[in-house]
Batch of 2 targets.
Target 1
Amino acid sequence: MRKANYIVWFFGFIELILAVLIGIQVYPMLPTQYFWILVAVELVFVVLVLIAVKKTWSSVLMSILAVVLIVLMFVGYRALDKVTDALDKVTDSTSGEHIQMSVVVDTEDPAQTVEDIVGYRVAYLSEEVSEGATATMEKLNAQLDGEVEYVEYEDIVSMVDALLAGEVDALIINEAYLAILEEQEGYEDLFEKIRILTTYEVEGTYHEVEIEIETETEISTEISTETESSGTTTSKPSSGGGSGAIWKPSSGKTGFLGKGDGPSAIEDGTFVVYISGIDTRGNPSVRRNSDVNILAAVNTNTRTVQLINTPRDYYITHPKSKGVKDKLTHAGCYSVECSAGALANLYDVKIDYYVKVNFSGFVEIIDAMGGVDVYSDYEFGGFAKKGYNHFTGGQALRFARDRKSFAAGDNQRGKHQMAVIKGVIDKLASPEWLTNYEEMLTAISGSFVSNFSSQEVYSLIRDQLENPSAWTVHTYAVTGTGARDYTYSIKNLKVYVCVPNYDTVNTAKEKIRAVIGE
């Protein structure tokens, strides 16, 4: 056999290996007809190789073609590998969120490092109130060359007040709780009065738990009893109230957040996604206040999305609160499942998936997409005009966070957040963003987490390729009335809350069911 034949066979063999590797990667996301087209192209190439080896001139041409194909396929393989790697990082995030537990002292305290607190009285919240305290004490004990005295507290306010009054020397506390307290009247300068010596990241428990859904009537009949002298709140449980251990929608269907034993919700064509935006930068798996709380009811058959915004201060129950009302934003400090459970409870709907994004990731993702087109009802801030705007990531973040420029405050901010999400959906439905796909994947990898599986994401991609028609996105925001009351998270201090308008909640329920068909 001529030397040229060996060269053709060699290049053909390399090309065939790459073809198989690419086929394995693209099969889950390509429509069947597209996949078989690729197989047919590869078979044609094999036939051409067999023909080419008969003549020297054709062997040379085929060798050149094979080299070109190998280069193109290698580039394609690397690109697909980045896609799968990015998806692996952001999907199936069921190993638990991270809790940032800090050791805190008063700013006047002489301790400068955590090793200086040997012999201190260290306060912590009971595990019933704050997950992660025990794990943090174990880490602290291992680091210290001596002992400390631990003092247990049952609420944030009393524990922080004890530190500021000198009753204890240090705190072990979830940083998310410090952020909660800093928002309250009288604690605005909290971070100026304390010093964080060190922060431990501990693994939070993944709560794939079932919760009890209460009907709107049952929720509204809960009675909050305020005792000014003791500064505590008690709740009379509703007739259908329970321990938060079983999730029973009023429709009678049992459901739960996350994965079930039945078929994927995406396979059914209808599902609900909880979109959570947390008030932090960096690791999106950290538990923090959830400042963005949007439900997306999706119907892939009708190409329809219904977005429902819920104000961050909505005064409702969540799985952790055991019937006591709390602000929706605070639920994120306990877990993303807790936030989703609160919304599932409120809207009497099964939430299948969550997507959790941090603010820095929000900016990076939109910049990587080349910006988004967003409609604004108002001109404000010196950057947004009435009508459609092409926003960079930073501009989109400003647009989505501003509430002080409007009389409607948080309600208008929620509408802006949904407008940005609509812009993102429209951009993703077009191939334009693919020009910056590498930047997009990098931004996604470090910016959000979800409980979608990789296969479910591939299924969505395949569905979009099979049916590239545009999506219809509807938006709706529930409303409420401002008030001040005690909450589960801050028991001894009245804070601003938004009491739900249940007429708007019922309208939201109808809009969700109109999309998912329940």
Target 2
Amino acid sequence: MTEEVNDPLFRPFQFKHLTLKNRIMSTSHAISYGVDGKPQERYQRYHEEKARGGLALTMFGGSSNVAADSPSVFGQLYVGDDSIIPHFQQFSARIHAYNCALMCQITHLGRRGSAYVEEWVPMVAPSRVREPLHRSFPKEMDDDDISRIVAAYAAAAGRCQRGGLDGCEVVASAHLIGQFFSPIANLRLDALGGSIENRTAFGRGVLDAIRKEVGDEFIVGMRLSMHEGGPDGLHREECVEIARIFEEAGTVDFFNVMHGRMDTRLALAEQNMPGMGIRSAPFLDDVGWFRSEVSLPIFHAARVNDVATARHAIDTGLVDMIGMTRGHIADPHIVAKIRSGQEDRIRPCAGANLCTSEARACVHNGATGRERTLPHLIQRSDHAPLKVVVVGGGPAGMEAARVCGERGHFVVLFEAMPNLGGQLRVAATAGWRYELDGITEWLRSELGHLGVDVRTGTPANETEVLAEDPDVVIIATGGAPDLSWVNGAEHCVSVSDILERRVLPTTRVLVIDGTGDHQASSVAEYLAEAGSDVELVCPDTGYGLDMPPLTQVAFRKRLYANEVAVTLDHHLDKVEPADNGLRVTLTNALTGVSVDRSVDQVVIEHGTTPIDDLFHALCPKSRNDGTTDLDALLAVRPQQPLPAGSGEFDLFRVGDAVASRNIHAAIVDSLRLGVAL
């Protein structure tokens, strides 16, 4: 308790009438769990888990739209009519039960929307300037648009108040209010353009109307960029001037500050939601400078994914509230673990940005977004402990062993290699993706805490598995690179061959990307940095189609920087020896025209084939013939009763031992199976 009192993260923060019990928050983001634009059960449970985990404030509704001409383009909520209020009331009661505050972000997207979704009406903006990312040509707002949208903001804030929320946040950066601020989007020659005073007039009108609607006690904040960057964007002195205008008006209670712009995918990847490969908390120093220039409380979140950084930000006065938003997607119980002296057991955010993709999932927490059926905190089983043998120490095997250990079972994990990690370990060798090692290290550490019997460097065969007299056997042996389909496979190597240094790079290398995910791009970048002349060939019509969008743009930038040629719409026909190395025949998937390449090395990425010999050998000796009941798995029910001491065992397989998939799929397989054992 003394440590908690002395920890700056646990200093209460008085905010008007509201006392926030600590300094840790989750900022608004578009998690896309809503139904019909409403925060229904799944959405609420996702935030409830963070409240249960002890944070002081959770903000939701990233870019919740206030009007019909601000459509949902990335799964936002709609706060433009009163049907949202009952959902807010239910949501507020759920979160307030944990002494956690709840606020919603409201906005009008302006030019950031799309004219080709929902109502198919024109987008509106200060000027007819197209946003590069969302691509609509907006209508320049007239007086009627302005008065209508100002009223819509005020009505939306009123709905937040009547819904029992503690406050709301208005988005300025890159959205309509910020578009008026910015010389990038505001080219007007009337009283709403030109000087900063003029460019803030629309925003001041919005905040004035909100205050008239909700009164002085309701908390209202603004998400504001402290620097747009580039020769044409707002500079930090101008952003401070804007902040001071709203301070003097008395309509804003806090600034939630960000760095940069959001009008391109690269800006999102590097400035708004920086992921792996970008240093921790890259904008904290800028935030500290901004805070020294204004008097209102400052909130901030951008890749603050470890407790030490969060503690430093509060202790040195850089911010008043620190957002660990993606950190809480990875582990919603960060605060509780700090409080209980288990800071070392916090599941780390790896910065993989799967949570920003359509999947809206944490790369290594299968419970996030599935709180109705899957627990974040695993409960001990209410029956006698089982003997569980797990074969394979990749992500699927480690997660299976962890969950079974948490359930109180006796677990033995066999791993043939000297170290745990499997394909995670291989992926982490690819330069800037080293943070994937954090997943392996967390799982390894958890297995140690739980007393799992981990036997690395120990291949397991049928005899060794049966010698353990198991009740349950889980096969997590992963997959082997799939080159079986290649005409001339004997002349090719796999991504793993290169990244695990079993094969050295050569001068001219052709990389065949058969999945559109990170593997081929990782090896192409690695080869180019090693000095090879690299061409990356994709059979798809676009590059990196299976990557999270922010990971895709990060890879594209790196491939350009390393002068990797990318060829789309071509598939591999054959590889054969030639006088000067290898002759590779490619065929254009659209025209059918074939072309030859002359190279020294061909690297293939085409997923994996299951390593399942042990599984099939054990099937006849298992009670369930290795069958997994899919309905029971999805409902998180036991597969079947397990009579203690019978000498029989149930057999299951998970991860790539079933089919070639990704890290998250492997984790979810094992979590679903394990929590029901």
